[in-house]
TrEMBL record:
It comes from the Bacteria. This is Aspartokinase. GO terms for molecular function: kinase activity. Gene3D superfamilies: Acetylglutamate kinase-like, VC0802-like. It is an enzyme of class 2 (transferase). The keyword Hydrolase does not apply.
Amino acid sequence: MPLLVMKFGGTSVADLARIKNAAEKVKREVERGHEVIVIVSAMSGKTNELVGWVEQTSPMFDAREYDAVVSSGENVTAGLMSLTLQEMDVPARSWQGWQVPVQTTSAHSTARIEDIPRANIDAKFAEGMKVAVIAGFQGLSPEGRITTLGRGGSDTTAVAFAAAFDAIRCDIYTDVDGVYTTDPRIEDKARKLDKIAFEEMLELASLGAKVLQTRSVELAMRYKVRLRVLSSFEDNDEHSGTLVCDEEDIMEQNVVSGIAYQRDEAKMTLISVADRPGIAAAIFGPLASAGVNVDMIVQNISEEGRTDMTFSCPVNQVARAQKAMEDARTNGDINFHELVADTDVAKISVVGIGMRSHAGVASKMFDALAKEGINIKVITTSEIKISVLIDRKYMELAVQALHDAFGLEHAA
Ligand code: ASP
Ligand code: MG
């Protein structure tokens, strides 16, 4: 029997009525002849509440007990979902992570799934059970303790089950109806994409992160799990939502698929550092150790053995970056004239696998920004993405201008 994984996020199981609504969607798939594995999140807001309780009780909390508390929200929704299905005459059974068991590493609060043995669940399917309901976001460490997978981790649970059980697809039910060409709150002509490639979804993380945990997309790409994002508040058919899939499954596509943005970026420039072998390591090593997520890096032209080094990072890490650089200077590891921080920048990226085979995307992007009088401060490119830093006050305008320039309101 074809097996489908259906994952319901917090807003889709926020109360008993919504759990019933979700259960009806599951029942419909059973009636269509599927076996179903349902992955549930905690009711919306629940995990935040649990995290808050832990922090109030013990600011320097023991991560094992954090996981014991924070994983509990999913236990409630798993049991309630199974009961709701049973009330609808659908044979269902729930599992907590340890019962499967979902074997993970021992990195509490950020554990990774290592293996999902099928035997327990397969045995129940063989007995006539139609739906296995799994508490998402949790697993079991080699030491026999409950672990959690990091915030948003039930998406990753869903993809891992889809891979382990050779599911025909992994449907992620959420409160939006798919992935858009850009943020509809900024550009009202933003269009829902029917399909998007895994790589593009990863690059569009700033748009998609609210929809899918990044790690779940990486896992889906590795195991070629077809992921579908769709709304639990609408009636859906085969064509609803957005399919996140292998690029070979996409026939027609615009060269550019989407415009992403990152509002709170900072541009940092070290003025006049010695241009010598090892200088980049001496700068970026301490930044990494200080937990600064460096994104773009540009080394400028050198003159008389000195050069300027520019990098970007999130605005809320500027103080940390400054301290790391001052410390490195005090230690004598690096030497610079000045560290200039521009904290009023935003990053805009155009993303599309079509760029691999089409020239001219960069010039079109720069043209569109120039027409609006927007100055570009830093440019970086990858095979399927071009990113620029601009003044934050032009962010919305830039997104709109680029959406228009690349004709994203119309499908290919
Ligand atoms: N409930 C967990 C969280 O809020 C896991 C999830 O919903 O994916 O992060
Ligand atoms: Mg989520």
